[in-house]
Design a protein that fits this description.
This protein is of the alpha+beta class. The protein is about 30% helix and about 35% strand. The chain contains 4 helices and 24 strands. The chain has a 6-stranded antiparallel beta sheet, with no helix packed on it. The chain is elongated.
């Protein structure tokens, strides 16, 4: 490579390296228009945001334990029911016929037992006479043993009859139980929130989600609560009894008051989320004018600490700087020093959506650069600024 080409390459490299310094020297003197604000005393309520839905604590999905057509429906969706109230009748004609057959079988087996008992009584009398005759030598051993065997067999037949009677009683109880189950009753006081079957359709005894397996859902309206998912990074700050502000998506301007009641012990991967989350249940203390409906999406703001009055600045004024070489990171702000931006390291504390607590780093009456964001992101130590004071 010629000396001329080497010189050209060196000149280009020097220009590239020097360009930022040239721009700084030429354009750095232009004053930047920024907004400033003072340090104020603010009440900050640290909180965690979580999303979830409204659900019923007391909610049951009724299903049938017997197979049959629905003969009667005694409720409609939205009706109020009480515990023990009959809400649906499955066709019981076949079950009544089976009941009559089972009752007849019980009676027949009871009669068989009576017959066997009478037979044994007669054979016992005959055996006593045979025993007397055998002792006198009137009848032989074979005839006497035959009489003994008949008595023993009769006693065995009686045991068998009693077992058949027990079996028929068990079958009768089973049929009676099935007949009782043709009447579907509500296990709780509540409201019919969904009705999934009609008269004439077949109720199916099944736990799988197939047509006919679900009859209706009944829930207690007073047991409604909020269930949200909290990220594992935030769950350590959640405690039972913390105050919560709940906003249902359908009522964005009507926040409800709640309280943390339950925190799950085990994390899970929620649908649509990549990280682990913990289920947190929140009781609704005051719903205001909100009409609560299960399944509503909602947002919960969980206040993790008591309200505190602290020295704070707008949160956008706090900048973060990381030095990977020295493995340290710092927070800092820019202070207005008679028209010059001074980079000042600070220590920060609690925050909310708008303000950040300043623990140490600044004393006295000062003006903190709070924006605009475009200027603040490119602001450098020593930049000349034109400050516009924002009123708190």
């Amino acid at each position: 490579m010629s000396i001329k080409k080497i010189s050209i390459i060196a000149l280009v490299l020097a220009t590239v390296i020097a360009l930022p310094f040239i721009n700084r020297a030429v354009f750095g003197t232009a004053r930047k228009e920024v907004n400033v604000a003072g340090i104020t005393e603010r009440v900050i309520s640290p909180s965690i945001l979580a999303s979830g839905f409204l659900a019923h604590e007391e909610e049951v999905m009724l299903s049938s334990e017997v197979i049959g057509k629905v003969a009667e429906l005694y409720v409609d969706e939205g009706d109020t029911v009480t515990e023990g109230q009959i809400v649906l009748q499955v066709d019981d004609v076949n079950f009544i016929a089976g009941l009559e057959q089972a009752e007849a079988a019980v009676r027949i087996n009871r009669i068989d037992i009576e017959r066997q008992e009478i037979r044994i009584t007669n054979l016992e009398s005959q055996f006593e006479r045979s025993n007397t005759l055998h002792e006198r030598g009137v009848i032989g051993d074979d005839e006497f043993e035959m009489m003994r065997n008949q008595l023993d067999l009769a006693r065995v037949d009686l045991k068998s009859a009693r077992e058949r009677f027990t079996q028929s009683q068990a079958q009768l109880e089973q049929i009676e139980d099935q007949l009782r189950k043709t009447k579907i009753v509500s296990p709780i006081d509540g409201l019919v929130t969904s009705l999934d079957i009609k008269v004439g359709e077949t109720a199916i005894a099944s736990s799988t989600n197939i047509p006919g397996s679900s009859l209706m859902t009944i829930a207690n309206p007073a047991s409604i609560y909020t269930e949200v998912l909290v990220d594992e990074a935030d769950v350590a700050n959640i405690e039972i009894g913390q105050r919560v502000e709940i906003v249902a998506i359908a009522y964005p301007d009507q926040p409800m008051l709640g309280e943390v009641r339950y925190i799950a012990n085990t994390a899970k991967v929620a649908p649509g989320r990549q990280g682990l989350s913990f289920t947190v249940k929140i009781d609704i203390i005051d719903a205001g004018d909100v009409v609560l409906r299960p399944g509503m999406s909602c947002r919960a703001e969980i206040f993790t600490r008591q309200d505190r009055q602290v020295s704070a600045v707008p949160i956008q004024a706090i900048l973060f700087e990381e030095d990977r070489a020295q493995q340290k990171s710092d927070y800092f702000v820019f202070v207005n020093d008679d028209g010059i931006a001074r980079k000042t390291r600070v220590e920060v504390g609690i925050s909310d959506d708008e303000f950040q607590e300043l623990i140490t780093g600044i004393e006295g009456e000062v003006e903190i650069v709070v924006g605009p964001d475009d200027e603040l992101r490119h602001l450098l130590e020593g930049d000349a600024i034109d400050a516009t004071r924002l009123e708190p």
